[in-house]
Amino acid sequence: MAFKGTLKDFKVPDILQLISLQKKTGILTFTSGDGAITLIFKTGMIVGVDSFPKKIQMHVGSVLVKQDYISEEMLQRALDIQKRTNQRIGEILVGMGLIDRDKVTASLKTQAIEIALSLFKWKMGEYNFKVMDELDEGMEMIEPVQTDNLILEGVQMMDEWPHIKRVISEPEMIFEPAPVDSRNIEIVSEYDEIPEVEGDKIYLTENDTNLLKHVNGKNTVQDLVDMGVFTEYKVYKGLFNLVKKKIIRVKILTGPRENRENEALLEIQQEITHKMDKLFKVFIVILLALLLFSIVWPLHPFKGDNILFKKSLYETFFSRGK
Questions:
Q1: Across residues 281-293, what is the average pLDDT?
Q2: Do residues 46 and 150 touch, judged by C-beta distance below 8 A?
Q3: Angstrom distance (rounded) from CA 113 to CA 232
Q4: Which of 55, 167, 217, 295 has the smallest CB count inside 10 Å?
Q5: Alpha-carbon torsion, ordered 239, 241, 245, 247, to 10 deg
Q6: DSSP secondary structure string, 166-196?
Q7: What integer pLDDT is reported at residue 127 of this predicted model?
Q8: Per-residue model confidence as pLDDT tens digits over 130-176
C-alpha cells in the first residue's frame, strides 16, 4: 500500500500528521528539482532521515570536527575506511574508539531534525509514502522523534521566521555578550511558564545558556548553525530571544568597505588640514605686515580725509553750544 501526490494538493504538515495519527510504518520520500529527502517512520515516529545529494552521514562527520570531538585527520581516516566497507561514518568512528556513541547519536538526531524541518519551506515537489509491515535491519538511524513535536516546531518556525529575520537578517552577523549582572539571571526549564517581565530578573532556558556559550564575538550566525549543536531554527530563535532579553548585542565590525570609507575620509581630513595650515600661514603674514605698517606709520589712519580731524566739525559743534 502506498499514497503519493504533490505539495500543491497536500502540504507537508498534513502528510506528517496523517502518518502520525495512523501510526504508520514505512518510507516517505519528498522530491523536487533540488534533490530528495527521505523520512523513515516506525509506528508513526521518525526513526531515520536522509537527503540527496548531500548525505546526512557526511554532514555529521564535518559537524563532529567543528565541535572538536574529532580532528580532520580522524575524519579522513574514517572516510577512507568507509570507501572500502560502506559503513556509516558514525559507526566507524565509534568502532575506532575515537568518539562516544552518545555524541554521534546526538549529532545524528540534530541533523535529522534539521533536514526534516527544511521540508516545511518547500512550496513545490512530490511525495511518495511506501507503507511497510516492519523496517529492515539498519533502517533505524536515530532515536525516535515524535512526529507531532516536529510538526509543532515546523509550523512555529514558519510563523516566527519573518519576525526573527528582522533582527537577524544575515548569517554573517556576529553577536557578543552584553554586560549583565549575573545575579539577575535565573535558569528555568524549557517548558516552564516564563514571565515576560519581573523587575530586573532575566530568565534563560537551558537551550539559551548552551547557545550563549558559543556567542563569543567571533562566531558568525552561520558558524553557530554549522556547529550542529542546534538546528538552524533553534540557533536563530535562541539568538532572537537573547537579543530581546539584552543578554547579547550585535558586534559592530569594520569590514573592507568601511575601511575604504574611513581611508577616504582620512584623506579628505588631511587635505582640509593642509589647506587650513596654508591659510593660517597667509593670515600670519598679513597680520605681521599690518603690524609692521602700523609701527612705521602709526598715525596714517588718522590723517588725510579722516572726519575726526575736520576742523569744521568742531567749529560747528562749539558754535551750537554758545
A1: 71
A2: yes
A3: 10
A4: 295
A5: -20
A6: HHS--TT-BEEEPP--GGGEEEE-TTS---S
A7: 95
A8: 999 999 888 898 999 999 999 999 999 999 999 999 999 999 999 99
